[in-house]
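Reopening this one. Same input as before:
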Amino acid sequence: MAALALSGCGYHVGSQGNLLPKDLRTIAVLPWGNGTTQYKLPAYMSEAISREILSRTRYNVVADPAKADATISGGVVNVFNSATIYDPVSGRSTGAQLMVQVQVKLVDKAGKVLFSRPNLEFRDRYEMAVDPRQYIDESQATLERISRDMARTVVSAILESF
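Same output, byte for byte:
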C-alpha cells in the first residue's frame, strides 16, 4: 500500500535527465575570446570545458564546428586580482583573491541557443610568501583551478538546463 502511495507522489531523483536535444552527439569547443591580459586563461577555460564534457557526458568533442551538432563558445570578460591579507610587520600582502568573469554560449547547428550565460563569476584565493626571495607565483595554478570550477559549473548547468 505504501509503495503504491509513494509511486505517484511526484518526487524523483534529480540530475537523471539530459535536457539537451536527443540528436546531439558532437560538440565543438571553440577557442575562447579574451578581453584581459591573462593570455593563458582562455586556453585553460576551453581545455577544461572539453575535459569536463568528455568525462561527464556521452558527447564527442570535435575541433571543427562544421562537423559538430552544436558549438560551445565563451570568453573571458574580466580578471580581478586583489590582496586580501597583509603581513602587519612588512606591510606586504600574503593572500590574494582572483575573480574571473566569463560568458558562455551553446548553440546548435541551426543557430538555436541551447544555453547562454552572459555573466558568470568565479573566485579563488591563494597565498604569497612574505619574503620576496621565497616568492612562488601561485596565480597561474589558481587560474587553472578556477577553469576547472567553471567547467564543472557550466557543464552541470547545460545538462540540467539550470
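So the earlier flakiness isn't reproducible anymore. For the record, Helices lie at 2-7, 41-56, 139-160.
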